[in-house]
Amino acid sequence: MASGFESLDSEPDVLIAKCPPGAESMNRYSRIILLPILVVMVTGLLSCSLESRDERRARARERQGIILAALEPLVVDSPSMQLYKSHTCNTCHGDDGITPLLPSYPVLARQNEGYVLKQLREIKNGERANGQSSVMAAVVANVPDEDFVVLAAFIADELGDGAPIGKGTPDPESPGATLFKRKTCTACHGKDAVTPLLATYPKVAGHGKEYAIQQMMDIKNGIRANGMNVLGMKGIMHLVTEEEIGQLAAYLETMPRPAPEPPAVEETTE
Questions:
Q1: Within 13 Å and on the Cβ side, how many CA atoms surround 117?
Q2: What would the pLDDT profile of 80-99 be if each residue is shown by its tens digit?
Q3: What angle do CA 103, 126, 92 make, to 5 degrees?
Q4: Cβ atoms of residues 111 and 202 within 8 Å
């Protein structure tokens, strides 16, 4: 029989491999050496897999952040807008001053600064109490005059941010357009209804029809009587019928109230 093999007594034809001397201890030594190496390799593969997964997640989050930032840009209110909101003006008049809560509320955006300041003061002291003014009196009761000054300037120059004011297109041949000229409205409010004679007169273009009707009717009936300009207008409204007031209001609602022109920049030469 060849060296390295021996026969079983019960089964002489079956041979069993016999390790050479020292081979078994060498196998144990190999297993001791190889096992830690295998553990290190498997751990390394797992850590690489986890790392790449984390990297993919990070990239996905980054892309998502960029997309969200593009869709919803961060808007920080100016100090004047913060004041406007802190006094809850936006609750009734809208964040833009163009979309009031009710059609009987005025469109504030781009109104004359002097007119706004005058109305705020007169609503607070009770001189103007028609329509929703009595409700607003409670809102402005504790507002200091310096806030009125800031709000009036903000409403005139910033509120609305250039968004269009005025519904539809004015029809110069409409009954309201004819009445606006014939009843001498242009004398105080301007041909375009946005260039009044005095800073304390309102821009009437772009007001909602319902609000305009209520103000004209209240002036006509003496319910609104704050200031000499309103008293002067009462004499004119005495000659305007209720039907004509509706036609005037419908026309004014369509008239645009454009954003103020940016201040001219003086060129300097060196």
A1: 15
A2: 999 999 999 999 999 999 99
A3: 25
A4: yes
Residue showing tokens 């790392």: 51
In this predicted model, what pLDDT tens digit does every residue of 204-250 receive, in sequence order?
999 999 999 999 999 999 999 998 889 899 999 999 999 999 999 99
Q: Would you say 147 and 120 are in contact if contact means Cβ atoms under 8 Å apart?
A: no
Residues 103, 48: Cα–Cα separation, whole Å: 64
DSSP track, the chain: --TTEEE-SS-TT-EEE-PPTTHHHHHHHHHHHHHHHHHHHHHHHHHHHHHHHHHHHHHHHHHHHHHHHHHS------HHHHHHHHTTHHHHH-TTSSS-SSTTS---TT--HHHHHHHHHHHHHTS--STTHHHHHHHHTT--HHHHHHHHHHHHHTTTTT---SSS---TTSHHHHHHHHTTHHHHH-TTSSS-SSTTSPP-TT--HHHHHHHHHHHHTTS---SHHHHHHHHHHTTS-HHHHHHHHHHHHHS--PPPPPPPPPP---
> Which CA distances in Å does 253 have to 165, 166, 206, 270?
9, 6, 5, 49
Residue whose C-alpha is closest to residue 251's, from 261, 260, 240, 259: 240
- Spatial contact of 162 and 259, defined as CB atoms under 8 Å apart: yes
Domains within the chain, CATH numbers bracketed: 79-254 (1.10.760.10)
For residue range 182-214, list pLDDT tens digits in order: 999 999 999 999 999 999 999 999 999 999 999
Neighbour count for residue 67 (Cβ, 10 Å): 10
The set of residues, in sequence order, having a beta carbon less than 8 Å from that of 190 and lying 6+ positions away, is 196, 197
Predicted structure pTM score? 0.71
